Hints:
By secondary structure, the chain is mainly alpha-helical. The chain is built from 6 helices and 2 strands; from the N terminus they run βαααβααα. A two-stranded parallel ribbon has the order 1-2.
Amino acid sequence: xxxxxxxxxxxKQNSKWLGVCSGIADYTGxxxxxxRVGAVLLTIAGxxxxxxxxxxxxxWMATAKPLGLYDTPEDAKFWQxxxxxxxxxxxxxxxxxxxxxxRLADIEMMYTSRNSRLADEIDxxx
Length: 126
């Protein structure tokens, strides 16, 4: 896939207007409803012209999210974690690989060691 999974995209599939709020929600992992409520509150609370200018600039500068960027919802959640905290994400991946490596080592040790009880059980099945 040529599209970057860590880049900000406008989410046109889940948009209400131009996809800026849904893009921010997709990028950060926050629920899109909260992003929209925050944008409206920020606009009402005194940022009237600036929030609209920022909204239009983001809509003009950002590209639309490619279809099929994430294979599964778990994939989307993983990439949101990578964007928010890359060190934590790499630590989680390392931890999973360590666990898999430990389990494979246990299987290999069980298979290659001289285990008389296991050998007796195999012989009794013959």
